[in-house]
Design brief:
The structure is a homotetramer. The first copy, chain A, is of the alpha/beta class. In chain A, strand 8, helix 6 and strand 9 form a beta-alpha-beta unit.
Chain lengths: ~290, ~290, ~290, ~290
């Protein structure tokens, strides 16, 4: 089950205006080049007239060398059909940065999963507005950067963060219970590349203290939601949600405890789908090819 | 498993200001009268300082005759301790009225469950603002009353409804996808005795067309919520909720289809708990002693 | 949302030995004939080397007339590629027979869902070894046939059943808590066309009285399983499963009550997937293209 | 929410032959001693005639000093009524040992939860038959003991283990994917005090390689089960179970990945209930007073 033993494959993600023949034309391209398709997932948003596809094929035996696949696909197919596309290879290990504040549960879960789960990605740094979780990051040998954030220093802090992210070639940011609102300017550098975990079943209970609100409302189920961060708070495209039952016996602190287990699970699942190139975003909604 | 073969028992529901000795004093009353406790559930809302209890005990061998239990408990215990209480017997079959509009799924489910499920309750009539579901009610031999409701006729219609409810000694009203808002005046006759099914995971998506809103928001889970009806729309005490997973593949009509299965389940569970005297309401929240 | 307003489409189900180019060759066939693909789902069982696909495309604008689609696809594609395939049209209403004994909950749920759910199928008869549920079937205007089954009469009874099924052109049989074991000879007439609901989370608790066994074992979750019937009891390909939580408070009769809600949901979901041509069977497992 | 700020309370667990007056007599004892009941849970196993109760009350204001509560309760109540009972205080921090082999996911989750979750318990050592997870334990400053186990050395190894457990006053053992069968002799030292996590929905798929078996059977849901260890393999009293949906797309390694998330959650929940003294065991089943 080691990552290294999985044969190399390529993943193509596509979206474009829907029309006849898209699947035929794209799969024909692979067929002509001796590509063996492992997975093909396709979706048409009939209302908006948009076509989405994910294809994964084996590189072993494929006629095009790895470093020319993109260019050839672009000139032969994508330009002709006006496709929006990306191509990834399954041995890539894109860089991840995790942002945290003081709560350790998601950080521990991400770091331990990233180690044992054969992730096609690499956690390269942890950034926090507090020193609290430095020992956790360091016990996993992950560099930890403490960048305090106040109202006044926020712009400066984000500049420092972006510099670090660039230096380490970070592709994806995970907000693992990072208790700060990220500015629109910062987000524009990582569109659909910042994943947050919100501790409620969105759109119920956005904003602060959702467990308190859930308790007050007397719900019988609490949830957690992982979504891409957009300018509007807690309103970005949802990648994954899950729930757990609660009862009148559960105090707020019990909701917090039960919810934390859920936050870990939901964030890890969302991240897994993202790093395996299974998520497409369109019009503030996700297509998740599980 | 026939209802008739279950031995008769009594159910006491209590709430009052919390203080020491409540359980001891109440259970001692039962003990002195030879009561064999079958179930005892108790809850303290520490924040509000309120005590809740449900006790069920066998009437066989109980020293007090059925028709004097309430009076004796009141004078010996409840008045002394300033308890808010009710006592029910498990052979009672309180009358239920089901309000519907045009959608049959919840009505079918309630009527078939009420028949096969050994319910300690009796559906005595179906009221609708449309003729559509008359054949369904009549196939179960339940009287069906068509009472049209328009903006102008609403007050008059509710008067007619209340008259029917009184004539048939109805204790509980179930709004089984009844597409009308019930007036505050009407509700005041049935406080915590009108159960609604709302087709979303409240407080997300209150009001009309929640499946459309869920689709627009791109949620990965949809829900249904059964609650007591209060003056504020979709904001009453929640009795039961449940959810089902959806994906980007699900169109609005698929959400509707999946949701209907859920609505049936959630409404039936809520109703079951109510008619088995397992629900207490306090401060817009429910205590459900499952 | 009425069935009639959905535009006509065709569904192709395929399985065959996996090799390169299958998707390209098949989708190219549709493209050349002006077919607009609505859904395409594909799966490769890598271990067994088997390819599975479901494609749904619009018939409006398709170059081949409906009555020649199968023949042309067969000669141009299927024979050449040695495909195992079937083609269905979404306005077909294949005939269903429901087999029951005495328990009404699944029968009610199927009949009411089949009415309100815009099913692409038609319940044409109910067969039972008891008279008990005749009124239920007849309240839905579905013919009911009482065919008693004893050890001695079983062969004769199955002969009568098969005669009825043939007369009414039944394609699919649903065992809705039919408390009889169907003979291998009978099954051979309806391979992967008999759907059963088993009241446990298979493979746990096969056979009779699973709720009693679940209670004895002290499980915290009970389940229901819908599967195709094969010669080996409760061991056929699983189509759908779901579960509900239980506690130490739940007596066997509470498990039965909770389980019945589940049986209805699980059976209806399995059936929905089957009649929408979303299920393929291979090597005692199902591919469900949801 | 810090553990230290919760006021001290006492927990009484009782089981005995059911009879009239038990609740009254026991709660009266607390009332007479000025005990303020926080939680009372009671259950009667009607079939077996056994009574179970858990009461938690505040020690602040209680008339009996902490060190005499047990003795007084024993002489005044338990001996008279022939109760099987235990009394715990919420500031106790019983010692836990975690047994592991090579898989780190449960160990990480337990150690990080034990730190952030305000557990009323203390992980005092990790024992393993391999060196693999030493760095994990040591990064949490938990002593790690490598005790290899072979068929020949097993008796000797268990002796070493027991010696360590005794030295550190271990009350509870957690088998966190410990790939060894524990001998009956070992178990007899820790009856209902060894918690295992099994990676299937028991009683389905006991023994080795349950994910492979689940894949072979083609189930649509996989599960995890936490139970007390008894002499019969995977047949002990179940404390907690949960499930996750899978599809035909999930390979065995995907089942393993999804299942590991579940194993963590289920084991942590079971452990939480045990260390909060919410679990009673009787006749190979658990009563869990959640």
């Amino acid at each position: 089950m080691s990552k290294n033993t999985r044969p190399l494959s390529a993943v193509l993600l596509v979206h474009c205006a829907d029309r006849k023949g898209l699947v035929a034309l794209i799969t024909d391209f692979l067929y002509k080049n001796q590509g063996n398709i492992l997975y093909l997932d396709q979706h048409v948003d009939a209302e908006r007239g948009v076509f989405f596809m994910r294809i994964e094929w084996e590189m072993s035996g494929f006629a095009l060398p790895r470093n020319s696949v993109k260019a050839v696909f672009k000139s032969e197919i994508a330009d002709r059909l006006d496709l929006d596309f990306s191509i990834h290879f399954t041995d890539e290990r894109p860089g991840i940065a995790i942002f945290v504040s003081k709560l350790p549960h998601c950080l521990y879960d991400l770091l331990s999963s990233s180690r044992s789960g054969h992730w096609p990605a690499e956690v390269r740094l942890v950034i926090s507005n507090h020193e609290t979780l430095r020992p956790v990051a360091e016990s996993f040998n992950i560099p930890f950067h403490h960048i305090p954030v106040t109202k006044e220093s926020k712009a400066e802090a984000e500049k420092k963060q972006l510099k670090l992210l660039k230096e380490l070639d970070i592709e994806l940011i995970v907000l693992a219970r990072y208790m700060q609102i990220v500015s629109q300017g910062f987000i524009s550098n990582y569109v659909n590349k910042i994943i947050n975990i919100h501790h409620s079943f969105l759109p119920a209970f956005p904003g602060a203290r959702p467990y308190h609100s859930a308790f007050e409302r007397g719900v019988k189920i609490i949830g957690a939601t992982s979504h891409y961060v957009t300018a509007e708070l807690d309103a970005g495209p949802i990648i994954e949600q899950d729930i757990v039952r609660v009862t009148h016996r559960d105090s707020v602190s019990e909701l917090v405890r039960k919810g934390r287990e859920l936050e870990k699970t939901v964030l890890t699942r969302a991240l897994w789908n993202h790093i395996n190139r299974k998520v497409l975003v369109y019009d503030n909604r996700t297509i998740v090819f599980e």
